[in-house]
Amino acid sequence: MKLEKTTNVLSLPGRSYDDACGAAHALDLIGERWAMLVMRELMLGPLRFSDLRAALPGISANVLTQRLEGLEGIGALVRRKLPPPAAAQVYALTPWGYEAEPIMQALGRWATRSPLRDPLLPLSPVSLMLSFRTMFDPDRAEDFEARIGFRLNGEDYMVRIGKGRVEAARRPIENADVVFTGTAPAVAAAVYGGVKLAALEADGALAVDGYRTIANRFVTLFPLPPKIDATSAAAAPGTS
Questions:
Q1: DSSP state of 5
Q2: What DSSP designation does 47 have?
Q3: Domain assignment present for 158
C-alpha cells in the first residue's frame, strides 16, 4: 500500500532531512540554530520581541524574526496582541509548543554530563528556572516546603517546593520565605557550582533576604549528574 503525503497550512522552516524518523522530523521542525532557545525563553509565558532579544544577546534581529516566523509556521507558537493599555505584540507557545519542555529537559540532563560544557557562559533567568524544574531531586527535598523568590535582571520569579515537587514561574514574589537578588549566573554558582552564599554576598554578586536555613537547604536540592570520563569516551566500543 502506498502512503500519500498529507499537506496543510503549516510549513517547515528550512531544509528537510527527507527522513521518516521522528527524531529527524523533530530536527526538521526545531533544528535550526536558535529555534530551541527561542522556545526555551517562552516556556514561562509570552514575551515581546525586545524581551527575546535581551534574553538571547547573541541573536540578531533578522535571525530572531526568521525563527519566530518558522516556529509560527510549524504551529509551535502564535502572535498575540495584549489588550490596552499595553497594546504590545507578544509571542506565545501553543499547547503543542509547550510539550517540547520534556525534550529540552532530557537534552539538558544529557548535555550536562559533557566535559566540554562551559558553566561560565551566559545564562538567562528563564534557563535557570527551567533548570530547577529539570534537576530537582525529590529524594533530597524529602518534606521540605518553601517559597523561594528571585529578582533577576529586574524580573520576579517564584519557585515553590512541596510534597516532593517543584514549580518555577514568572510571578510576583510576595510572601516568599527567602529572596535571591542578583543574576542568574550568580544563583547558578551557588546551586550548581558549590560557591557559598556568603562568598557571593561578599563579592556583591548576590543578596539573600529571608530565612537563611531555607536558602542554604534550597541550593542543595539540584544535584548535577557526573561528567563522562573523557578518556574512556574517546574510545569507541570494541576498539583498543
A1: P
A2: B
A3: yes
